Amino acid sequence: MIRNSIFIILTMIVILAGCSNEPQKNTANTQNLSDLKQSNELAKDILNTQKPSESGQDNERAENISTIPDAPDSKQSKPLIVLTDEQILMKPPGRLTGTDYVEQNVQEALDKLPTDLTADQYMEELLLLLAEDYRPYVSTFINFESDITVNNQRPNAKITLPTSRKLHISILLDASGSMNAKINGKSKMDSAKEAIQSFGDKLPKNAEVSLRVYGHKGTGSNEDKPLSCSSTEEIFHGQGVQTDQLKNALEDVNPAGWTPIANALESVKQDIDPETTDSVVYVVSDGIETCGGDPVQVAKELHQSKVKTVVNIIGFDVDNEGQKMLRQVAASGGGEFASIDNGEALKKYLNKAYEKLRGEWTRWIEKGTGQANIQKEKKQGVLNKTRETMQRLSNQENSNLQVALKYLKTKKESDFPWSDIYKKIDERKSFAWSYADETGRRLYNEVSKNGKQVYDDIKDEGKKNSDDLTDKIKN
């Protein structure tokens, strides 16, 4: 009879559940779900009245009935919020931590806690009192930039000076009639053109370069002297990367008249950009000033101008008297005088001058790699300090929590969840300590990798470029 009753109740439950899902019966949709719960409870009550002697089959059926799920609560529960490691550690510190930590004050606060708290609740109360302030250090990790940035523009085929430097190189070529003279079967002019072209090919690609000729008009006659002495012309002005155009610019230059060195130097002033930071002049001449000018004074003015200019004089097959005068010009211009007796010597001198310019590049590489190392070590120092400080704080926090737990144990009843709280305190220390260690080391390794990459890039590019330039000088 009881079995039949149970079967009838089950049938009714199934029918009721099915009816509640009938889309065409709108009234069924408004049925209170509590009726279903009551039906379940009724079935369970009937089973509870069953005698122990009832068959095993009935017991099995009872187990099946007891597993019928209750209807879902009409109020949906809120989703569980999972905090990140950073969010946990960014919580405000306890009110009795750091410089505010006084053990007696902590004990007084602990005495006020309820006696029926769970281990989780005790842990929460302990952290409200004794959690250390990790926020500045977690913020350092979160906002940390592991990139190494050096303001270092890498070279291509030609040397590149630092972008903060703006170099102007002026080449002044004597085109007076005496440059027609030959040395070892080649005219001085042809040797000078070849040397200047070779020199131009090796100039810094972002340097500003100007080529000016003087004495290229008229003849060496007295009648043409005024014309020749006033003749100076800039035949090329561009960047070092464009110096392949020098050959075309030089092609139509032929030795002609007198030697107006002072006039040519005076004209250099208008060739130099006011924003130039470094200016170097190379005067190629086979003789002294013949137009009555004062090249010594003009060279001095250039050297003392706002854009400090160094004037170098290359005496191309100049006699002793001429060398004496040209040395004075170089000295007043803060430069040097070199006596060249043939075309090969002129090339070697210009290569030597170029070596000085390449020295700028070498020093730039050293500065760049040095900056990379300094930046890397500075960032690694910040990470080490942050990691170690966080770990020290986690040790201190753990010590304070352990002292508080020991005090609570002496005050609470025997059912006090001491071991569970102890475990949570230990987990808290491991969590904070490990976060600092793992995050600090990860960022440290990133900085090391990035710093090494920047350092190697600068060094490798510099070496490759230096080797290429060395080959050019040899050829």
TrEMBL record:
PROSITE patterns the record matches: PROKAR_LIPOPROTEIN (PS51257), VWFA (PS50234)
Q: Where is the VWFA domain?
A: 168-357
Q: Which residues cross the membrane?
A: none
Q: Where is this region: Disordered?
A: 49-77, 456-475
Q: What is this protein called?
A: Amino acid dehydrogenase
Organism the protein comes from:
Brevibacillus reuszeri
